[in-house]
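Dear colleague,

Thank you for sharing your sequence with our group. We've completed the structure prediction you requested, and as agreed, I am returning the results in plain text so they can be pasted directly into your records. Please verify that the sequence below matches your submission; if there's any discrepancy, let me know and we will rerun it promptly.
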Amino acid sequence: MYTFQALQILLFLIPGFISSAMLYSLVIRHDKSELSRIIEALVFSLLTYAFYSLIKMPLPMSLLKAGEEINYTLNPLGFLWLVLISIALPLLLSLFITNDWHMKIARKLLITRRTARTSVWFDVFYDIKKHIIINFENGRRIFGWPMYYSNDPEKQYIFLHKPAWIVKDAKKGEEKYVDLAIEGILITPEQRIESIEFLQD
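Please find the predicted structure tokens below.
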């Protein structure tokens, strides 16, 4: 009896686990506890079967217990539809979360002031695509294009493409750019960033 019920629950949760795993691989998110992941999978499964019911097809797999035997019937087309919905849901959700579309609408309606992303650090680098100047605590400055950056403000990794140091010309008293003539440089947290300037066009 318990094995049969466990199989039924597992059959219901599998689409949710597929969706949850895909969303986790596509979107930068905070780590969740096992209970939170199960609840998320349950919500995804509920949504998946809700959309599946609109197709008006029989269940992709049904289990029947006759005595000690457990019999199953398989609907290949229904199973394919279920898998497609399980994949389409996280793809669509990832598109909204990454571009912050749903939260933009919510902010315009004055429902919230939050964004869908994990930190202000990530918000700024994603929305403001400009060349930057990094000011270090030791007074050094470097210019470049932020091609890659971390999502965690506590781990300030930035890869600058075509970087150049900014130094003062002792004769003219002006700043000049010294091209490093390299593809890029990875700035690590050990270099102690004080501030970052985002330049205009």
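Summary note from our side: Helices lie at 2-26, 34-55, 76-99, 101-108, 120-127.

Kind regards,
the structure core
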